[in-house]
Design a protein that fits this description.
about 140 residues, alpha+beta, seven-stranded mixed β-sheet, about 25% helix, binds coenzyme A
Length: about 140
Amino acid sequence: MKVKAPKTCEEYKRYYLLRWRILRKPWRQPLGSERDGFDGEAIHAIACEGGKIIGVGRGHFKKPETAQIRYMAVDEKHRGLGVGSAVLKYLEEEIKKQNGKTIELNARDTAVGFYLKNGYQKAGKAPTLFNTINQTKMRKKIIK
Ligand SMILES: CC(C)(COP(=O)(O)OP(=O)(O)OC[C@H]1O[C@@H](n2cnc3c(N)ncnc32)[C@H](O)[C@@H]1OP(=O)(O)O)[C@@H](O)C(=O)NCCC(=O)NCCS
């Protein structure tokens, strides 16, 4: 498995499709709802294996030294094998290269354990998604 930035149009297409399929489709959100205004300037990551994209994630800067990670998703068949952690690590390294010192994110409550394992700490309540998914704010200092 290799984690890298998507480059070709085809890779971007499949990147957004995985985001939508895992993070939007189950809540009947339309295609297109998986994108936002930060995509143009963000750090994108794809985990690839055997020509397939099996994991994705994105980072963008909210303030000069503070980035947010969003849209972390791993294909169901490849979960629990370190793919999500590898995507997270790639994004953290890229954020560090751009002088990011802190990462914040809103974790779906079902994913809080994953972020705790990766060194994030709970930092309060975050807005509820689609009126149903409870979220927790989490934070990690990547450079002291
Ligand atoms: C959350 C998600 C990205 C994790 O990806 P993954 O590839 O399965 O995670 P990893 O295999 O790297 O897991 C790393 C560690 O976290 C643990 N972990 C993974 N998912 C977890 C979860 N949902 N709850 C608790 N612990 C979890 C693993 O057991 C592993 O622990 P270990 O190091 O002791 O073995 C993936 O389950 C997913 O796509 N979930 C659905 C979408 C989602 O909720 N995204 C996050 C939105 S905030």
